[in-house]
Structure formats: C-alpha cells, structure tokens
Amino acid sequence: MALTYAAPYPRVIREVTVNPASIAAASVGETSVTVPGIKTDMIVAVQADALEANLILGQPRVTAANTVAIRIANPTAAPIDPASQTFKFIGF
Questions:
Q1: CA 66: distance to chain centroid?
Q2: How many distinct structural domains can be found in the chain?
Q3: Per-residue pLDDT tens for 24-60?
Q4: Is position 32 within any domain?
C-alpha cells in the first residue's frame, strides 16, 4: 500500500529516555517505548548515540499509537545491561 502525504508530510521528532532491559548473551531483547505523537501508519527511525559497544540496534516498529518497539541484539558471549539513555525517534 502506498502512503501519500501532502507536503510537508506529517513528521514526529522526539527524544525519549529509554532504559532497555538486560540482554542475555547471544540473544535479542525487545523494549517498548512510549513516543508521543507516533501513529500506527508511520515509519519510524531511531538513533541511540550512547548505546554500549557490541550491541546492535534493530529496526524499530510501531506497535500501537504512541508506542514503538525496538529490538537490541547482543552477539557477545556475556550478558549486557544497557544504561538508561536518550534515544532519538523520527516518525514519517
């Protein structure tokens, strides 16, 4: 389905504090984040400038209005508990 928006298209830009759960060794964790203004028909991008070394930030997805799920992979042989930090979101 093609999405068509008149210029300027709807856009949401937010900085949200996120405290991801500990991620076990060689696994993937998912964290749900409240992002005000995100709608279910939006595509979302996320940036985490302070994400710990070796963690891999996956593609975010909108799971409900104002809610984004983020997957974080830990390919190492030890668990990693990411610190609480600011994530940047853009929805378009």
A1: 12
A2: 1
A3: 999 999 999 999 999 999 999 999 999 999 999 999 9
A4: yes
Which tokens belong to 91?
């929805």
Specify whether the CB–CB gap between 79 and 23 falls below 8 A.
yes
Residue 75 lies in a domain: yes
Q: Which of 92, 18, 87 is CA-nearest to residue 62?
A: 92
How would you write 26-83 as a 3-class SS string? CEEEEEEEECCCCCCCCCEEEECCCCCCCCEECCCEEEECCEEEEEEEECCCCCECCC
In a domain? residue 37: yes
Q: How many beta carbons lie within 10 A of that of residue 4, not counting itself?
A: 5
Token pair 């992979």 in the structure block, residue = 73
Provide the 8-state DSSP code for 23: B
